[in-house]
Specification:
The strands form 5 sheets. A 6-stranded parallel β-sheet has the order 4-1-5-6-7-15, with helices on both faces. The chain has a 4-stranded parallel β-sheet with strand order 9-8-10-11, with helices on both faces. By secondary structure, it is an alpha/beta fold. The protein has helices at about 5-45, 70-80, 105-115, 130-145, 155-160, 180-190, 205-210, 220-225, 245-250, 265-275, 295, 325-340, 345-360, 370-375; strands at about 50-55, 85, 90, 95-100, 125, 145-150, 170-175, 200-205, 230, 255-260, 285, 305-310, 380-385, 385-390, 400, 405-410, 415-420. The longest helix has about 45 residues, at about 5-45. It contains 14 helices and 17 strands.
Length: about 450
C-alpha cells in the first residue's frame, strides 16, 4: 500500500505523456490540413490571378514625340484584353501599368525598379531610344524579370549595355533593325543618284552617335567598302547649338551627301544654319530627326526631299496579330481617331504588346519567370511590323525587323508624305516613288 501513491503518480505521468503526444500529432495533422488548404487557396488564386505588365516610355521630355501615340495604342490593347487572357487553360485578367521615363535614363531605371519591386510585374515592356530601353532592360536583367523592348537600333541596345555576342543576356530581348541595316539602306538610296560620293557625318557623343560612328561595326567600314569618302569631325556634345565648324568643313570638302543621327530640334538648328551659310548638299539622309511629321513640317520648304529610314508605314504588307488589321487600316484608324498623321513608332508600339500577348498565351506556368522567359525565346510571331523570332542571329537577344528607305515629298494633305523609295533587300515592301535630289540642290 505504501507504493500506491508512487504507482498513481507514474500512471498519471504516463497518461499525460500519451495525451501530449496525441495533442502534438493532432496539431501536426491540423497544421498539415491548414497548410494544404492554404496551398489550395493560393493555387486557386494563381489559376485566375491578375497578370501585370509594366510599361516604360518617354511620355514627357525631349523624347515625348516617340510616345505621342501611346494613349491610342494602349486603348486598343486594353480593349483586346478586356475579357482576360487564356494562359495554360485559365483565364487571367491583365493589367498594364504605365510609367513615364520623362526622357531621362535615370528616371527610366527608377520607375522600372519600382514596377519590379513594388508592383511586382510579371513582364516588363519598354520602347523608344536607348536612353529609355537600356536602363529599363538593365533593371529587368538585374532582377530576373522577363523583358521585351523595341525602337532602338540593336547595337546601342546590346553593346551599349555591355553585351557580349558569345554570351548575351538572360532575361532581356529586343526586336528592331541595326546599324548595318541602316547603312545599307542609306548607301542604296545614295547610289540611285549621281553624286561625288563625299559624305559629311553628324554623329553626337551619345549611344546612337557612338554606335553609328564605330570604326568596326558602324558606318565607316561600310561606307569605305562602297566607295564613299567620309568627312567626320568627331563626336559633338548633345545640346550643341552651333554647327558652324561642321558646315564650314563640309563646304570645303565639297560634301554632296549629308547624314547623321540627331534629335528633331538639333537637326532643325543645323538645317537652319546650313541655309544661312550656303551649304546645299544634293542628299540629306538623317536618322531620328525626320521620323515625325510635325518635325518635318516645322522645317518649311527645305524639308522637301529629305530622306530617312522607314521602319514601318501604311505601305508595309503586314497585319496585326491582335486585331487582324493591316498596316494601312491601323494607320487609317489612328488618323481618324486622333486627327494626326501616322508616324512610324505607332506600329512598333502596337507590335510590342502583340508580342507580349503572344508570349503570355504560350507560357506554361505564369507564376514562373523562367517559363515566361522560355516562351519569349520560343517566339515565332507575325506582327504588324513583320516576323518576330529570336533565332540567335545576329545575337541571342536580338531579332531584326525589315528596313527600307524613304523620302519626304511635299503634297496637299498632309503637307509632306513619307514615301518608300528604296526596298533593296526587302522586296516584300513595295516602293512608291523614285529617289530625288533635294529641291534646292541646284540653287
Amino acid at each position: 500500500m505504501t507504493n500506491a501513491p508512487e504507482i498513481d503518480k507514474s500512471l498519471q505521468n504516463t497518461m499525460a505523456e500519451v495525451s501530449r503526444r496525441d495533442f502534438l500529432r493532432g496539431s501536426a495533422s491540423l497544421a498539415l490540413l491548414t497548410s494544404a488548404g492554404a496551398a489550395g487557396c493560393r493555387k486557386r488564386e494563381s489559376a485566375n490571378r491578375l497578370v501585370k505588365l509594366g510599361f516604360v516610355s518617354p511620355r514627357t521630355g525631349s523624347l515625348a514625340a516617340f510616345s505621342e501615340a501611346d494613349p491610342f495604342v494602349l486603348a486598343g490593347i486594353r480593349k483586346a484584353l478586356a475579357g482576360g487572357l487564356i494562359i495554360s487553360g485559365n483565364t487571367h485578367p491583365v493589367e498594364i501599368i504605365e510609367k513615364d521615363s520623362r526622357s531621362d535614363p535615370n528616371r527610366a531605371a527608377e520607375v522600372a525598379s519600382d514596377l519590379i519591386k513594388t508592383d511586382r510585374v510579371d513582364m516588363m515592356l519598354t520602347a523608344n531610344t536607348p536612353e529609355t530601353v537600356n536602363p529599363v532592360s538593365d533593371q529587368a536583367e538585374i532582377n530576373g524579370v522577363p523583358c521585351i523592348s523595341t525602337d532602338a537600333p540593336w547595337q546601342p541596345y546590346f553593346f551599349g549595355r555591355g553585351g557580349k555576342a558569345e554570351q548575351g543576356f538572360d532575361w532581356t530581348y529586343h526586336f528592331f533593325w541595326g546599324t548595318e541595316d541602316l547603312a545599307a539602306v542609306y548607301t542604296n538610296m545614295w547610289a540611285s543618284l549621281p553624286t561625288n560620293k563625299v559624305v559629311g557625318a553628324l554623329w553626337g557623343n551619345d549611344n546612337d552617335g557612338n554606335s553609328f560612328s564605330d570604326p568596326r561595326q558602324g558606318f565607316p567600314p561600310i561606307l569605305a567598302a562602297k566607295g564613299f569618302k567620309l568627312i567626320d569631325l568627331g563626336r559633338f556634345q548633345p545640346g550643341t547649338n552651333d554647327f558652324s565648324a561642321q558646315i564650314s568643313a563640309f563646304k570645303s570638302a565639297r560634301v554632296e551627301i549629308l547624314t547623321g543621327v540627331l534629335s528633331p530640334p538639333a537637326f532643325a538648328t543645323f538645317w537652319s544654319q546650313a541655309a544661312q551659310q550656303g551649304f546645299r548638299p544634293k542628299i540629306a539622309t538623317m536618322a531620328k530627326a525626320l521620323l515625325f511629321p510635325a518635325a518635318v513640317e516645322s522645317l518649311g520648304d527645305r524639308a522637301d526631299k529629305l530622306s530617312t529610314e522607314v521602319w514601318w508605314s501604311p505601305n508595309h504588307p503586314f497585319r496585326s496579330g491582335v486585331t487582324g488589321q493591316t498596316a494601312f487600316e491601323f494607320c487609317a484608324e489612328y488618323e481618324k481617331q486622333t486627327g494626326k498623321q501616322w508616324a512610324q513608332p505607332i506600329g512598333f508600339k502596337h507590335a510590342l504588346f502583340g508580342v507580349a500577348i503572344d508570349v503570355l498565351k504560350r507560357t506554361k506556368n505564369i507564376d514562373s519567370p523562367q517559363a515566361i522567359r522560355d516562351a519569349i525565346v520560343a517566339t515565332k510571331y507575325n506582327s504588324i511590323v513583320g516576323p518576330v523570332s529570336w533565332s540567335g542571329i545576329p545575337v541571342k537577344n536580338v531579332c531584326k525587323t525589315p528596313l527600307v528607305g524613304g523620302q519626304w515629298v511635299s503634297g496637299n494633305k498632309p503637307h509632306y508624305n513619307l514615301l518608300v523609295v528604296n526596298d533593296e533587300g526587302e522586296k516584300e515592301i513595295p516602293t512608291q516613288a523614285k529617289m530625288q535630289p533635294l529641291a534646292f540642290a541646284g540653287d
